[in-house]
Specification:
By secondary structure, the chain is of the alpha+beta class. It has four helices and seven strands; from the N terminus they run H-E-H-E-E-E-E-H-E-E-H. Helix 2 (about 55-60) crosses helix 3. Helix content is about 20%, strand content about 25%.
């Protein structure tokens, strides 16, 4: 099935963060004050460049087990939160209009923001392929997302990390 085929483009299946069974944020901090043991860095990747439905689709395929949350502020700024489903890793990226560097905190065995940046770089390096170039193969044993062709092992490796 091709994802971008208008006959199979199903909005309700696009984003995993549409699911409602998410652990509460407090589970990630384990009773500590934020930023707990989060390590601070900065990034040039603007959080909005990870947040459109298609960016989240592509990045989400390469960064499994992670969902996004946005904490919006009155002035248009927001904090983009990334959480691993196992509650062991999290990241936050603060967005303010007009900035070119954004503050990031990460904690846990996975550096989630680093994984997101790497997935975005891979997508950019391939010319930001659109929905029509992605497909999905579902079998009883596995679900595999692919780029350009289900027979292309290179495309599967790229999407899988």
């Amino acid at each position: 099935m091709k994802i971008g085929d208008h006959r199979t483009e199903l909005a309700f299946m696009r984003l995993r963060q549409q699911r409602t069974d998410r652990p509460p944020f407090e589970d990630y901090l384990r009773g500590r004050e934020w930023p707990a043991d989060g390590v601070r860095t900065t990034t040039a990747l603007a959080p909005p460049d990870t947040g459109g439905w298609f960016e989240q689709f592509v990045i989400g395929a390469a960064v499994p087990g992670v969902f996004w949350r946005a904490e919006r502020h009155d002035d248009g700024a927001y904090t983009l939160w990334l959480h691993s489903r196992d509650t062991r890793s999290w990241a936050s990226a603060d967005y303010e209009r007009g900035r070119t560097a954004y503050e990031v905190y990460q904690s846990g065995p996975r550096n989630l923001w680093d994984e997101v940046e790497a997935a975005r770089r891979r997508w950019d390096a391939r010319g930001r392929p659109g929905p029509a170039r992605f497909g999905l193969t579902a079998t009883p044993d596995a679900h595999t997302m692919w780029l350009d062709s289900p027979e292309s092992p290179e495309a599967i490796r790229v999407l899988g990390g």
